[in-house]
Amino acid sequence: MKKISVIALAGMGLLLASCGDKKTETATAGQEQTVAEKKGDVFAVDVAASKVNWKAFHKGGMAPRWGTLAVTSGELSVADNQLASGEFVIDMKSIKVDPASVTEKDKKYTDLEGHLKNEDFFNVEKFPTADFKITKVEDLAAPATDAVAGANKTVSGNLTLMGKTMNVTFPAKVDVVDKSANVAAKFTVNRADWGIKFGTSEADPAEWMISKDIEIAIDVKAAQK
């Protein structure tokens, strides 16, 4: 798929391989699109069972960092046993860094968490939430390289982060069984598309060592209301 630009968490995690050996599908991104119409049965997102994992790194795959974000609310709608629309909200203040990803003796994972929350990255006091709203769901036309196992759909949606909305497209595994609906995906985006530019200055070697790419893995589970 075509490479795009979007968020860098030189550490936000929604997971996955090192930069030098990347194993995730790169999402395509573009301008905000019309949100898909809600129709059929409504499924409430199980916030306890749903999760967003992230992984980011320094250039060349050095010193990867990873962690989690919490899903706080959301719903999916299903018509004719197919996912029709949906949305979910992410609590940006919940961003966590896995202590196991910070192995240097002179660094603390708590310091990285604080840095990710401040104005250099996600400015969580001003922008406490992010959200994703589905704009289109289509059958996956062909097997997608490095997509989540079992990917069967192409999902597009508006991702709003730090007050900016962009439409992203990625392969996903969508399952609708009985009274449940699950959406799982893993893909790579580039933080700079949302204006998160810390670490992107070529003039400062201390900054440009941070990769713009971030790997995101989502696992959203919902049950019929």
Automatic annotation (TrEMBL):
Annotated signal peptide: none
InterPro entries: Lipid/polyisoprenoid-bd_YceI (IPR007372), TTHA0802/YceI-like_sf (IPR036761)
PROSITE patterns the UniProt entry points to: PROKAR_LIPOPROTEIN
Top-rank lineage group of the source organism: Bacteria
Pfam (any one): YceI
Domain Lipid/polyisoprenoid-binding YceI-like: 42-223
Name of the protein in its database record: YceI family protein
